[in-house]
């Protein structure tokens, strides 16, 4: 099915948000006494991970042993099966087989021991408001992750684990590069239940709260994704260069052109094939516990971003996409850092622009990016970017920039970490400055460039005041969004 799902009163691209983050039954306050069943959620299932100590799936031991043995076979085992006789290499000679067995039997035993040791060494449990992960047998190490600091929970299924029915749970907590907890591996069903249970606890609900229902929002067709990847100026230029170098190498038999063709081809694979495999089958769903993103052809990923964790978003429109009305939505998500931030920053790889705007309205309830009036940057600026503009309303601060690849960057006032004014030597010469509305480190950086200094100072003061007012109206405990 392409495009928006049939809306049973659901989302209409470009229209009002399908529904807000406020979950049905996730009322503003928990009543005293035993927790109630949220309306429509059915019977409460028994708590699984909120009680007792748990280990990974037993097949994890075998999987680790197999990986250990596979490395041995590639590096040492296979050469043991070869025997040189004169100028020839003979495979599976009797003496080679005996030599291989003599070495492989103790290595196999060692691999099994390593696998079982690693399986026994990791335990986890939920203690009150914390997820506890303990590693080590002889020397134990324990990590305590407050559930209120959980930023996102992903269920990842690499190709090998898809064959064995296993899944990996990655818990992202606030705290920088070492804030990720990997539980590698659980059964697929157990991973889903653990994800739902941790999200419920992080939201301030009982751990045995059933998994929140979801409403499909958008699915990216495979053909649209492929066409969008090749409809980018760098990719188109690389394609022309590849064809030119290939033709030249075949006609002139010049090794230099062949090297250029191979190098360009590798670049094209990285620019087209890799994103195609990563974002193939991309779907977005809206749930009370946040945005649910699913994608991946080989390694499937189910990413859940709880409400309030998206700090800033960008609607990206490359020049070749604008004629088709396409856009990509990127985001800075709290908790992700480094490589994990790069892998998790795409909320929608390609979609009609009105769908991208509707998704931003889901992330920042009440925001209507297209309705925010944008004022152009000062004509005194030295930048060639004549699309640079900025504007604000009571909900968000919006900037636009980019001559060829237009970026509309949006941050909710309640998410602003700081507001600052910078002015370089050339900008001071012309009486200009740049206003930065800072969010946590990530791919989205909201900055209104080349504003006249008096206007820039007014923007700083008004934005800081709007941010203060927005935070004052935010619930007292935003980490427990369901309360």
Automatic annotation (TrEMBL):
Region of interest (Disordered), residue spans: 1-37
Nucleotide-binding is among the record's keywords: no
Annotated transmembrane regions: 61-81, 101-122, 233-253, 265-286
Protein name stated in the entry: Membrane-flanked domain protein
InterPro entries: UCP026631, YdbS-like_PH
Keyword tags: Membrane, Transmembrane, Transmembrane helix
Organism whose genome encodes this protein: Thermomonospora curvata (strain ATCC 19995 / DSM 43183 / JCM 3096 / KCTC 9072 / NBRC 15933 / NCIMB 10081 / Henssen B9)
Chain ranges of the YdbS-like PH domain: 119-197, 281-356, 397-457
Domain of life according to the entry: Bacteria
Presence of keyword Transmembrane helix: yes
Pfam families per the UniProt record, alphabetical: bPH_2
């Amino acid at each position: 099915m392409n495009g928006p799902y049939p809306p049973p009163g659901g989302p209409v691209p470009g229209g009002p948000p399908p529904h807000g983050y406020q979950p049905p039954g996730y009322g503003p306050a928990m009543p005293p006494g035993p927790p109630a069943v949220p309306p429509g959620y059915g019977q409460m299932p028994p708590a699984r991970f909120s009680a007792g100590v748990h280990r990974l799936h037993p097949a994890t031991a075998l999987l680790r042993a197999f990986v250990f043995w596979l490395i041995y076979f590639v590096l040492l085992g296979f050469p043991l099966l070869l025997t040189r006789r004169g100028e020839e290499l003979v495979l599976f000679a009797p003496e080679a087989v005996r030599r291989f067995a003599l070495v492989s039997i103790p290595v196999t035993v060692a691999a099994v021991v390593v696998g079982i040791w690693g399986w026994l060494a990791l335990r986890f449990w939920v203690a009150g408001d914390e997820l506890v992960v303990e590693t080590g047998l002889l020397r134990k190490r324990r990590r305590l992750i407050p559930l209120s600091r959980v930023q996102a929970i992903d269920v990842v299924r690499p190709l090998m684990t898809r064959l064995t029915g296993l899944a990996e749970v990655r818990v992202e907590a606030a705290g920088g590069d070492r804030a990720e907890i990997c539980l590698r591996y659980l059964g697929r069903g157990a991973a889903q239940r653990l994800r739902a249970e941790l999200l419920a606890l992080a939201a301030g609900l009982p751990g045995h709260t059933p998994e929140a229902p979801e409403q499909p929002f958008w699915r990216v067709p495979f053909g649209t994704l492929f066409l969008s990847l090749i409809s980018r100026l760098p990719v188109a230029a690389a394609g022309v260069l590849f064809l030119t170098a290939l033709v030249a190498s075949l006609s002139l038999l010049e090794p230099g052109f062949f090297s250029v063709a191979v190098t360009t081809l590798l670049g094209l694979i990285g620019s087209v094939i890799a994103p195609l495999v990563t974002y193939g089958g991309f779907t977005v769903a809206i749930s009370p516990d946040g945005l649910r993103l699913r994608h991946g052809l080989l390694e499937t990923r189910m990413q859940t971003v709880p409400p309030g964790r998206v700090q800033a978003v960008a609607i990206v429109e490359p020049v070749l996409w604008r004629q088709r009305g396409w856009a990509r939505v990127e985001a800075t998500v709290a908790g992700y850092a480094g490589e994990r931030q790069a892998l998790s920053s795409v909320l929608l790889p390609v979609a009609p622009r009105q769908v991208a705007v509707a998704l931003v309205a889901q992330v920042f309830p009440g925001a209507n990016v297209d309705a925010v009036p944008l004022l152009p940057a000062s004509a005194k600026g030295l930048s060639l970017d004549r699309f640079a503009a900025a504007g604000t309303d009571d909900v968000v601060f919006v900037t636009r920039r980019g001559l060829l690849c237009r970026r509309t960057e949006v941050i909710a006032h309640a998410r602003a970490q700081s507001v600052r004014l910078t002015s370089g030597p050339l900008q001071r010469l012309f009486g200009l400055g740049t206003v930065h509305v800072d969010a946590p480190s990530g791919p989205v950086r909201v900055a209104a460039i080349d504003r006249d200094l008096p206007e820039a100072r007014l923007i700083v003061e008004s934005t800081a005041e709007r941010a203060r007012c927005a935070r004052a109206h935010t619930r007292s405990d935003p980490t427990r969004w369901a309360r």
